[in-house]
């Protein structure tokens, strides 16, 4: 660990702390914001998320070495944590902290992008089913029934078995496309009740077309549940990515992701447990933070729930 | 009720048929030659044509589909490319192992989750509740297979309390008497089932805590307290009964997650179940096995949801009245 990296990490911590404080200060102005920060775990979750995002964005500064730099394969392999290598080194003498930082880019990006795909498809399908009703609704919801009946991991295994090794972009797409079923059901339910409300009827009476009503009038009112399900969903996607990478069919090495770092470390579990321990801990921390923020958002956006 | 049941079963069957059809289409509309997908050198067109004819791939798609479904209906999942045995045999070996693991994990999930959730609800906003709240939040957020690896490291490698994988001891098992065989199986089951069950129990506990808190705010609980019933009886006799209801929903909901987790946990603990079968088959390009395992998992989920719906009707009289 050199001085530059230490300073950069302290900087990331400071940035996360200041961001949370500033957000909390501004949130005092609204009841939603107060309810959000009224949750014990909300500030903590936000802090963890901002910290890891800062680490990922500033990876060239926060990581003392490159993600696949082998330092000295003879003298420095499987070194336990020390001041020079705070999380130790792995079998190929690569610095685990540096790989963890670069891996956060991959893991966070895969989680966020796959969730974006899932939320986009899910909201569109759900909104169409709920707004158009009738035959469209019946067909789309049967598709969702079928999608929900197959465990997601098996669905992904089938896709990967048929199309062989997937490039990272396609992998993200496939993870996203297997994850929209729940969101679409949620959105459909909301839209079903919204479509009868006066402002939608008014828009229709003014001659607005279906796409305009859907995207300008209906969907903005469903944003709250979508955001909550996205926050909770990113964590789920990160866990799936880790699982796929662990099986050797996720993010292709040598690109580090937290999942394939665990997979790399697993064979040396007994001799160098730190190569397995820390990436898993990182996933746990970030997913926990996402769940905490998601729960707090759920309470903040739904006053009835928070009253409890 | 009978009509509802028939309709519900028909819907479940329709879902299974739809999954079979989708998989058939995915397989047959996927680009590329189905033989030796990794081969670089081009094959003699005559050989490709002969192979296509041999496997019936030159026939029109509807005919192939009819044959595929007819074979499935007779329990014929085709021949595994890599295992040199029918897929149905491999599946028949794997399903009981997965059922034992997932069943035990589900039991742990619901029982532990219920106990923790009730305990937390009774102690809301005090230290045990807060500590357990963070604990369950963390357990529900870590990768299942990572937790499995750590438990292997601590209880297998470090303390030698439990074996580091497999269903039975490969050497000793055949020589053991019946009682010792059961103990051996349970001993091997402990770590994987605990890993899978604890992760599930973490989310069940969070759900159950909220459910109990909701019940405790009801008027009849106040009545029970007002007439001087000890708090223990209020919780156990009045609150618990209604707080158990969401467990039935969770039972149906958590099955897909459990099976997804089982794929990874089986791989970590060398547990020869459906998940490990499918994950191993990926590397051998053995897609008939992957498809069959997926179909097996789907049938489990669909049956699980059916049972959950039935249980719900049995447990909650309001639903029976509603549907009649």
Give an overview in words.
- The complex is a heterodimer of chains A (about 300) and B (about 325).
- Chain A has about 300 residues and is an all-alpha fold.
- Helices cover about 75% and strands about 0% of the residues of chain A.
- Chain A is built from 15 helices and no strands.
- Chain B has helices at about 1-30, 45-55, 60-75, 85-120, 125-140, 145-160, 180-215, 220-225, 230-245, 245-270, 275-285, 285-315, 315-324.
- Chain B has 13 helices and no strands.
- The chains are: A mainly alpha (about 300), B mainly alpha (about 325).
- At the A-B interface, α6, α7, α12 and α14 of A face α1, α5, α6, α7 and α10 of B.
Helix content of chain B: over 70%
Low-pLDDT windows of residues of chain A? none
Q: Characterize the overall form of chain A.
A: globular
- Helix/strand-derived category of chain B reads mainly alpha
Largest interface: A-B, 49 and 61 residues
Mean pLDDT of chain A: 86
Low-confidence stretches of chain B: none
Could you tell me the mean pLDDT of chain B? 83
Quick one: biggest sheet of chain B?
A: none
Q: Note the overall shape of chain B.
A: globular
**Beta-strand fraction estimate of chain A:** under 5%
> How much helicity do the residues of chain A have?
over 70%
- What structural class is derived from the secondary structure elements of chain A? mainly alpha
Which H/E pattern describes the elements of chain A? Answer: HHHHHHHHHHHHHHH
Distance between the termini of chain B: 6 Å
Distance from first to last alpha carbon of chain A:
47 Å
Order of helices and strands of chain B: HHHHHHHHHHHHH
Q: What's the gist of this structure?
A:
The complex is a heterodimer of chains A (308) and B (324). Chain A has 308 residues and is mostly helical.
Write out key terms for the chains shown.
heterodimer; A: 308 residues; mainly alpha; 73% helix; B: 76% helix
Q: How do the helices and strands line up, and which of them pair or pack?
A:
The complex is a heterodimer of chains A (308) and B (324).
Chain A: H1 3-27, H2 31-38, H3 40-57, H4 59-62, H5 96-132, H6 134-149, H7 152-163, H8 168-177, H9 181-194, H10 198-205, H11 210-218, H12 223-246, H13 258-265, H14 274-301, H15 303-306
Chain B: H1 2-29, H2 45-54, H3 61-73, H4 87-122, H5 127-139, H6 144-158, H7 178-216, H8 219-226, H9 231-243, H10 245-268, H11 274-283, H12 287-315, H13 317-323
Helix pairs in contact in B: 1-3, 1-12, 4-5, 4-7, 4-10, 4-12, 5-7, 6-7, 6-10, 7-9, 7-10, 8-9, 10-11, 10-12, 11-12, 12-13
């Amino acid at each position: 660990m050199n001085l530059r990296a230490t300073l950069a990490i302290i900087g990331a911590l400071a940035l996360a702390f200041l961001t949370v404080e500033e957000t909390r200060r501004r949130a005092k102005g609204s009841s939603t914001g107060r309810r959000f920060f009224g949750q014990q775990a909300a500030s903590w979750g936000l802090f963890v998320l901002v910290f890891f995002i800062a680490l990922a964005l500033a990876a060239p500064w926060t990581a003392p070495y490159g993600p696949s730099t082998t330092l000295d394969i003879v003298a420095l392999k499987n070194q336990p944590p020390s001041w020079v290598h705070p999380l130790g080194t792995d079998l190929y003498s690569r610095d685990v902290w540096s790989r963890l930082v670069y891996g956060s880019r991959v893991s966070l990006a895969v989680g966020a992008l796959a969730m974006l795909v899932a939320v986009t498809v899910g909201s569109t399908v759900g909104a169409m089913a709920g707004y158009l009703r009738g035959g469209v609704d019946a067909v789309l919801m049967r598709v969702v029934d079928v999608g929900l009946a197959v465990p997601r991991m098996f669905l992904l295994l089938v896709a990967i078995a048929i199309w062989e090794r997937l490039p990272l972009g396609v992998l993200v797409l496939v993870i996203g496309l297997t994850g929209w079923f729940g969101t679409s059901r949620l959105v459909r339910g909301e839209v079903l009740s919204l479509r009868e409300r006066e402002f939608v009827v008014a828009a229709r009476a003014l001659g607005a077309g279906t796409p305009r009503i859907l995207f300008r009038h209906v969907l903005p009112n469903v944003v709250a549940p979508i955001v909550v399900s996205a926050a909770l969903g990113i964590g789920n996607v990160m866990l799936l990515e880790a699982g796929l990478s662990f099986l050797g069919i996720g993010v292709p090495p040598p690109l580090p992701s937290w999942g394939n770092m665990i997979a790399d470390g697993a064979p040396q579990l007994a001799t160098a447990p730190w190569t397995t321990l820390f990436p898993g801990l990182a996933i746990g921390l970030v997913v926990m933070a996402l769940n905490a923020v998601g729960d707090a958002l759920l309470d903040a956006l739904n006053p009835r729930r928070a009253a409890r | 009720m009978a009509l509802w049941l028939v309709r519900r079963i028909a819907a479940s069957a329709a879902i299974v048929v739809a999954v079979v059809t989708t998989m058939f289409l995915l397989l047959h509309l996927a680009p590329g030659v189905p033989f030796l997908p990794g081969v670089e050198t081009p094959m003699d067109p005559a050989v490709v044509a002969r192979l296509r004819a041999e496997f019936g791939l030159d026939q029109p798609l509807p005919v192939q589909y009819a044959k595929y479904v007819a074979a499935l209906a007779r329990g014929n999942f085709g021949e595994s490319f890599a295992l040199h045995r029918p897929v149905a045999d491999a599946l028949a070996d794997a399903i009981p192992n997965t059922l034992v693991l997932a069943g035990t994990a589900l039991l742990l999930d619901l029982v532990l989750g219920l106990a923790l959730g009730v305990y937390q609800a009774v102690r809301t906003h005090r230290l045990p509740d807060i500590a357990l709240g963070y604990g369950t939040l963390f357990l529900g957020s870590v990768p299942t297979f990572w937790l499995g690896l750590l438990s292997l490291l601590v209880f297998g490698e470090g303390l030698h309390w439990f074996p580091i994988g497999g269903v039975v001891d490969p050497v000793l098992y055949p020589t053991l008497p019946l009682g010792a065989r059961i103990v051996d199986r349970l001993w091997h089951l402990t770590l994987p089932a605990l890993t899978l069950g604890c992760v599930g129990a973490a989310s069940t506990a969070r759900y159950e805590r909220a459910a109990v808190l909701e019940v405790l705010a009801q008027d009849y609980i106040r009545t029970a307290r007002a007439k001087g019933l000890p708090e223990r009886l209020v919780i156990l006799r009045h609150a618990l009964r209604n707080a158990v209801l969401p467990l039935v929903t969770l039972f149906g909901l958590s099955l897909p997650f459990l099976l997804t987790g089982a794929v990874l946990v089986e791989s970590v603990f060398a547990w020869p179940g459906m998940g490990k079968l499918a994950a191993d088959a990926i590397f051998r390009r053995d897609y008939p096995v992957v498809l069959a395992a997926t179909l097996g998992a789907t049938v489990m989920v669909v049956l699980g949801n059916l049972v959950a719906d039935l249980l719900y009707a049995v447990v909650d009289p309001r639903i029976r009245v509603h549907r009649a």
